[in-house]
Amino acid sequence: MNSKLQTPIDYLKGVGPNRADLLRKELGIHTYQDLINLFPNRYLDRTQYYKIAQLQRNNADVQIVGRVTGLKEVSQGKGKRLVASFKDDTGAMELVWFRGAKWLKESIKLNTDYVIFGKANAFGTNFSMPHPEMELLEEHEKNLRSAMQPIYPSTEKLSNKGITNRVLNKIMQQLFLETHGKFEETLSQNLLSDLKLVSKSEALFNVHFPKNQELLARSQFRLKFEELFYIQLQLILKNLIHKSKIKGFTFDQVGEHFNTFFKHYLPFDLTNAQKRVIKEIRADLGSNAQMNRLLQGDVGSGKTIVALMSMLIALDNGFQACLMAPTEILSVQHFNGLSELCNNLNIRIKLLTGSTKTSDRRIIHEALENGELDILIGTHALLEDKVKFKNLGLAIIDEQHRFGVAQRSKLWKKNTIPPHILVMTATPIPRTLAMSVYGDLDISIIDELPPGRRPIKTVHRFDSNRLKVLRFIRDEIDKGRQVYIVYPLIQESENMDYKDLMDGYESISRDFPSPKYQISIVHGKMKPADKEFEMQRFIKGETQIMVATTVIEVGVNVPNASVMIIESAERFGLSQLHQLRGRVGRGAEQSFCILMTSHKLSSDSKTRLETMVRTSDGFEIAEVDLRLRGPGDIMGTQQSGILNLKIADIIKDNDILKLARFHAKEILKDDPRLIKDQHRPILFTYQQVAKYKNIWNYIS
């Protein structure tokens, strides 16, 4: 049966080479298997037949039985339209076609019973239906069809070339006739009975030709579960394979560095979330597998302390550690922060970035190779071939989505056995997406803020309130605070009428004149040295206002900055707004985030702004963002290839996703190599869909 599904689509009766070519190009359908997985995106209820006298002015799709009593061609613009009189025993209406008149005129039979289907448009008291679907009543009654009519995904090109929904439906019917509607089962008998799932054959038949709403719902559930189950199986197995195949250094000591820091120099009590995460990391480092862990935590949740304590475990076991950040500003900040924390410990830390002097580089390279240097912090400069460690045991990557896979793998090669990897991000990844995209990484989440951090007050203000906002900024500066003002663009764009940075800078300079006020400006087109100079002025408190584009999004830490103004906030995505808000609220003072917009807002913009005002929970914000933007835009997941879903939707089918992950884990716990008889269909299907064919080579 399975081999039949690999038949090229050209060989299906009713397709032929031309249609096959279009189906390949437009819908990616190459084989019978691809066609069976072209699932309808909605259904029309065809159980009801209307009389012409019953038609309402509601623009709904209706189905009518009647006869064509006359045809005429009417001249229009460049061609002719065909108009038919259509009657039943209660009244008459018109059917209209704007193309294909010649062919239709020859093929329509007069005074013969037809079933027509389409949208009925009202003109005065009369109704007309443009481009109706038409079928002889005799054929209609014979056809393999269901009361619920499936509507398949399509493209303009397919419609123009005559591959309508009706044609797709006919092709699908032919496929079921040729395969006798029998498809191999892909799930185990246990799963089917535990979850009361319909069989594969029944599910496929009822998704394409549903008899009723209930069977359709059960069939969709079955197919969605199956799709998500195999994705989870791949991710969990990838993780198991990784752990059994890639051995890591075993850090079995928690020694002097860690304990001294913990007992005497920890600047504040750890939150329960931080304690939990450190425990998870310690367990990884103590096993003999390489750690591959993603650490998520909102801005200010205390990831840096966790990173440092993980590095101290590496040092206690005689290894070196490194921390790589995406920008020079951020790596300098990490270096300053960690140097301060390690002040009283006998630890050597150095910073390596693009602007490190050649003479300093030489000293760093040498100290790194002979083991005098314990911790190296830096940017991409860490990846250079010249940078050789004596014994790198732990590599930490901050804001990992800014680094490519190739860059990460370079870090792996910095030791004979790959170092343990801890990836950190302040961009909250919705749990749904994390389960699907990062399911092969172990995930730790810091989901509480350190005590004493006051929540940031967020408000939305329209441009008409600008004077009040300016007065508020003056009051905050008078209290000795500093302010960020962020713009979306650098230069005026012809088709976008929102404020650009230079305009903004000029008007801010007028409202806050020197010498009383000093203003910094930072944007992406500045030279790194100029940018750094302006940043430093603001960090030192020499300027009270920082006018910037989103270059300040990641990691700048100025505890005295307590106000974030975001201009044209409707132009930013939710995760960006959340990141920008995280730049304030780093000191003990109450901080504020003001979202400025025009009055013209789309419904998505309103949702984003309302979400920002309502909550500061990064995960809740990420879930809303995922609902608004879909998984493809967030974290570039489309490149992962794993989310090329046919029927499931990881947002709407979140519950099914969790269920699928749970069952995939249970089955692998019981039978990691899937060799039990009952798991045969699962193993067979897994080998069809997975990248890792021979599981047993890896899993003992």
Automatic annotation (TrEMBL):
This protein's UniProt keywords: ATP-binding, DNA damage, DNA recombination, DNA repair, DNA-binding, Helicase, Hydrolase, Isomerase, Nucleotide-binding
CDD domains, per the entry: DEXHc_RecG, RecG_wedge_OBF
Helicase C-terminal domain span: 465-632
Keyword Nucleotide-binding in record: yes
Database matches in InterPro entries: ATP-dep_DNA_helicase_RecG (IPR004609), DEAD/DEAH_box_helicase_dom (IPR011545), Helicase_ATP-bd (IPR014001), Helicase_C-like (IPR001650), NA-bd_OB-fold (IPR012340), P-loop_NTPase (IPR027417), RecG/Mfd (IPR047112), RecG_dom3_C (IPR045562)
Domain Helicase ATP-binding intervals: 284-446
Record's catalysed reaction(s): ATP + H2O = ADP + phosphate + H(+); Couples ATP hydrolysis with the unwinding of duplex DNA by translocating in the 3'-5' direction
Xref: Gene3D superfamilies: Nucleic acid-binding proteins, P-loop containing nucleotide triphosphate hydrolases
SUPFAM superfamilies: Nucleic acid-binding proteins, P-loop containing nucleoside triphosphate hydrolases
One Gene Ontology MF term: DNA helicase activity
Entry-linked SMART domains: DEXDc, HELICc
UniProt-listed Pfam families: DEAD, Helicase_C, RecG_dom3_C, RecG_wedge
EC number(s) per entry: 5.6.2.4
Keyword Nucleotide-binding: yes
Family of the protein in this entry: Belongs to the helicase family. RecG subfamily.
Function: Plays a critical role in recombination and DNA repair. Helps process Holliday junction intermediates to mature products by catalyzing branch migration. Has replication fork regression activity, unwinds stalled or blocked replication forks to make a HJ that can be resolved. Has a DNA unwinding activity characteristic of a DNA helicase with 3'-5' polarity.
Protein name as it appears in the record: ATP-dependent DNA helicase RecG
UniProt organism field: Formosa undariae
Taxonomic lineage from the root: Bacteria, Pseudomonadati, Bacteroidota, Flavobacteriia, Flavobacteriales
